[in-house]
Amino acid sequence: MDKQEKVIPRGKFAYTYIIFGIIVGIIGTLLQTAFYVKTLYDLPKLLWIVAAVFVIYGIVQIIKAPSIGTDVVLSPKSAKEFLTNNAIMLALMVLVIVIMFIEPRFMQIQVALDILTQSSVKLIVALGICFTLLIAGTDLSAGRMVGLAGVIAGSMLQTETYANRFFPGLPQLPLFVPILIAIVVCLLFGTLNGFLVAKYDMHPFIATLAVQVIVFGACSLYFDLPPNNSQPIGGIRPDYQALGQTKLFAFQIGTFRFDGISVLVPIAMVICAIIWFVLNKTVFGKNVYAIGGNREAAVVSGVNVFATIMGIFILAGGLYGIAGVLETARVAGAGNQYGNGYELDAIAACVVGGVSLNGGIGKIGGILSGVLIFTVIQYGLQFINVSPMWQQIIKGVIIAVAVAIDLSKYRRK
Question: Global pTM?
Answer without folding.
Answer: 0.90
